[in-house]
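Collaborator request, handled under Task 6.
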Amino acid sequence: MRILKQKTNSFSHGVILGFICIFFLFSCRKDIRLESDVKALEKVLKIDRFDLEFGASNVSDLNRLKDKYPFFFPQQTPDSIWEFKLKDSVEKQISKEISRVFGAFTETTSELSHLNAHFKLLFNSLKTESNQVLYLPKVYTLSTLTSGLDIQNRVVVTDSMWLIALDHYLGPDHEYYKSFPHYIKQDLDARYILTDFSAALVAPFVVLDNNGYFLDKMVYEGKKIFLQTLVWPHATEAQHLKYTEAQYQWAVENEAQVWRYFLEREYLYSTDTALEYRFLFPAPFSKFQLVLDRESSPRIGQFIGFQMVKAYFEKHDKNLLKLLEVSAIDLLKEASYKPKK
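Structure tokens returned to the collaborator:
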């Protein structure tokens, strides 16, 4: 009997292994086909290093800079401000640090070009009026002092250009960030440039339901994260969520418990805005008001919303337009979302 059992198990394992191999072969072929379609659309983006040019300029270069980059010099800002910045040693030091960390920026330029092609391919498939935003943008690298961009908006996407403040991506251990809280420093890393751009690109396509429910906000965040993973599939889910691997693992292992916690306290249809601060906004951890809080992953509401959206997408034939149009309430009803215990 023992020998027969071994043979049966061996056969079963062989069948399972065969299915796994077929699945991965199919997935690989699908990925290859996708990348082939992306490459057909891909065009190299032009990168203008305004940060380096400004850092290397003097007061005598001000008029030349204003003629070349009129959109960076609003008329209401007096020349005296720019003259001060051009002489400012801090600005010049930041320019040197950006150059040291990023060099010629060639690798990121290639990745941004590939990202734009992924974006075009995905939203061309929707065949909606949104196709009018599928352009070939020009990319400008900046520093915070000259751009005015803040940490929460370190990349900006417009109809004709992409802006990025590179001094927000020097690495979490950089001396410029030593006074920042750890959970903020963690995000100030070059590996998030592509995910930040993917987030900025998809944001206009996702609408927040106006019920004011916590559910609406979870699904809204979940849709954005999900679209990011489609626009830039070369990053992990952890990267798109701005999680460390440990934080991502905690979220996966505790998904069912968190969902039950939300249901038992009737949070889904709550209009208490404090829930956003506890479970959606940037923070070192989520706030369950339990002893385990400090062990938890931050923004756990985003993670739950992301899982709900994935469940809906899989159940509805991967119809992206349907996903974008469905309300949070209907998504919850139709997703059959049940986290594994």
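The cover message to the collaborator said: "The longest helix spans residues 2-41. Residues 1-27, 129-133 have pLDDT under 50 and may be disordered. Please let us know whether this matches your experimental observations."
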